[in-house]
Structures are given as C-alpha cells and as structure tokens.
Amino acid sequence: AEVVEAAYLFHGDADLNLTRNVSRALELFDAAASTTTEAAWNSMLLHAREGHESKIIQHAQNIIQDPDATALQKTMAQHYLHRFGADDTRPNSTRAGVYLLAAAELGDSNAQQMIAHAYAGLELPELENVKIPGAPNTKRAMHFYMKAAKQGRPVSAVNAVSLMLRNPEGQRSTADDRCRGAVETLRDVALAYHPEVLQLHGRARHAFDSGDEEGALISFALLSELGAKNAHTNAASLWKKGQKKTLKCWRSTSTDLTGRLCELDYRRRAALTGNVDAMLRLASLHENLGEENQAQHWIRKASDAGSMQAKHSIAYIQANSPSSEDRSSACMEYCKLLKLQDEPVLARGLAFLQVMRLGSEGFACCDLPIANLPSKSTILAIFASTTAAAVCLGLTCMVG
Asked: Mean pLDDT, to the nearest integer, of 186-206?
C-alpha cells in the first residue's frame, strides 16, 4: 500500500485530485524499502534524481544483497556504488561507466538515455565521475537514443532527430530518408505526449469502461487516423465484437454486416507498424475469408519478425505441400525448431515427430540432437495426442 501511495504522490494524479509531493513519496518508498525490492529500487532511482548520495549508496548496497533483485537492478546498483563509492568500494569512474553501459544493454531506458548523452558528448550532472567506454561516438549515441525513444523517452527521440539531421553518414542515405525518419520519430513523440492526444486516449478509455463501446470506437478510430499505434489494435478489437447499433463499417458489404472487414483494416494498420500479434490475427482473418495468398503473406511477415508460432505454421504448410522442395525446407525448419531449448516441450516434440515423418519419406535434413530430445514418456504422450496436436500446427490453429 505504501508503494502504491508513493507512486501516486511522486507523479500526482489529476483524476484523483492528488497533488505531486516528491518528498512525501520518498519517505514512503524509504519506509517500504526494507520489505520489498520494488520500493528499494524506486527509492534508489528517486534519490539519484534528487542527488541524495548517502541514500543512493544505502539502497544500492541493499539491492546488491537482495536475492529477489533482478540482474538489471543489481547492475544499476553497482553503477551507483562505483560512481559514489562506499565503505568497501572506492569510486571508480571506469567501472561506473561499464556498469551503466551494461544496464543500458539490459534494456533500462534511463541508462540508455544517459549512455546516449555520454556518447553524444554532453556534460551532465548524472554523468559526473562516469567514464563511458568509447565515448564520444555519434553512431553509438544514435543507437542508444533510438532504443530509449522506443521506450517512451521524448528527450531521446528529439536528440535522435537532431543527430539524424546533422549526420548524413548515418543509416539513412538521402536527405529525404533522413527527413522522413525525423518526421516519424517526432510524430511518435507527439502521439505519446501531446496533452490533447492524451485527453483523447482518456476519453476513449472512459467511454469503454462506462460501457459505451461506440464512443470508445470513435475516439480510437480518430487516434488511429492520427497514427497512434495502440489505437489500431483497440479499434480492431472493438470491431471484432460485431456491427454496432449506429456505427456502420464503411467496408461492409450486403453479405457481410459483421464489421469483420473493418477489423481487418485496423489489424492491417497495426501489422504495418510491426505488431506481430496483429500479423498473426490478420493472417487468420484472411484465411477465414478464403484469401490464402494474403494469409500466407502475413504469416511469413510474422515469421520474419521472429514469431515461433508463425514458423511452426509455415513449416506445417510446407510439410504438407506436394512439392519435394517445400517438404525438404519444412524438414530443415523443423530441425531448427527442435533444437531451440527455450521452446515448450510439446512444440519441440511435435517438431521431432515431423522430422521423423519427413525422414521416413527420404528427407534427411539433420542429425537428431539425441541429448536434447524430450524424454521417452513425453514423446509417448505426444504420440497419444498426435492427431489433435498436429492440427494445431496448421495455419488456422496457430494463428486463430
């Protein structure tokens, strides 16, 4: 309860008529720091923002000793300890920089922005007594600014645009490409932080929570037109529920009044932004409409984006193709899937069965990794449900 109250006090909440109170938030976080990792982590970061050196060191030491702390949290704690020093740790600017860089690589947006500032050659209070390996480096600055920007850091987005426009030797080869990249980045910042856009998001959520789905859909549709990425998915989900009382899908036909075609339109918008789940759903929609070419196009897009679900679907399609070349490709893909240790046992077991089946047809595509195969009992259990499970390797089951 203290952590929740502290979070509200630190940020403030106009809807709850709660005024921002940083000092009280710090008191509550400090009080809860000895009982929860989250409170200790938040306390350390807030004290770092306020420049309270003794408190930073205290919480950093506790986080390092906390078995529940994540690798990222421990890495940032080490950064602060080596930056400021402690009883048994002397200040070391090089190690402080190395730990900060490691935290950035682990995905911390604050560390990414700080690292980007250092590579850009900026001198800031939070980088005092911190030596970043290889700084300054414009290319590395751009890399980390973009990483932080993707996690919602507007300062990083604006700085990335500045570097993008000032450095023609970057990834974007022409002036037009750099201009388009700048516009896209700044548009994302505006859509994420502009007060009127945030107000429209708030109205959409309020309408949905109040049971006014059409009101929510109107707001999300407008946000989608503006380019807000999450609005594409929200509008699609609302159209998925069927045709509305007063709103009519502009793509509906006399034979389809369900709103499914509008769902498809918004799923496509989401998929074009790189949303893998939208790609999978879009493939399923096209398959249900009998549009096999479009379905396979989006399932391949999802596979290229790293979706294991899509990779299984493509392998299944190829494995059941009359083409020997396709079946050979399927066998090789199943071999790759079989060797992925992070995949669920059932998925790997089914890949094993497909390799065995294709092997019996004369496709010798890989040596089976005997040491990494599921146990005999697991394979027997999979055999027992092969018929039902094999269906789930098809496009319908995998992307529906």
From this structure: 85
Task: Residue 232: name the closest of 194, 307, 303, 282 by CA.
Answer: 282
Mean pLDDT of the chain, nearest integer:
80
Using pLDDT thresholds of 50, 70 and 90, give the confidence band for residue 269: very high
Rounded Cα distance between 115 and 9, Å, is: 29
Tell me how crowded residue 306 is: count the other CB atoms within 10 A of its CB.
9
- 368 burial (CB, 10 Å; 0-12 / 13-18 / 19+) is middle
Supply 371's token pair: 């040491």
Q: Which helix (H) or strand (E) holds 274?
A: none
**pTM score over 0.85:** no
- Give the count of beta carbons closer than 10 Å to the beta carbon of residue 280: 26
Q: Note the pLDDT of residue 380.
A: 47
Residue type, position 20, single letter: R
Q: In the structure, what pLDDT confidence band is assigned to residue 14 with cuts at 50, 70 and 90?
A: low
Instruction: Report d(CA 303, CA 312) in Å as an integer.
Output: 9
C-alpha 58/C-alpha 56 separation (Å) is: 6
Contact status, residue 47 vs residue 55, Cβ threshold 8 Å: yes
Q: Is the torsion defined by CA of 244, 249, 255, 256 positive or negative?
A: negative
Chain-centre distance for alpha carbon 292: 29
Do the Cβ atoms of 312 and 320 come closer than 8 Å? Answer: no
In this structure, the chain runs to a length of 400
The Cα–Cα gap between 86 and 257 comes to 69
- Output phi, psi for 196, to 5 deg: -70, -35
pLDDT confidence of residue 79: 94
158-172, 229-243, 249-263: which has the highest mean pLDDT?
Answer: 229-243
Rounded to 10 degrees, what is the CA torsion of 372, 377, 381, 386?
50
CB atoms within 10 A of CB 20: 12
Query: Which of 142, 193, 195 is CA-nearest to residue 166?
Result: 142
Residues 6+ apart with CB under 8 A from 354: 315, 316, 319, 330, 331, 334, 393
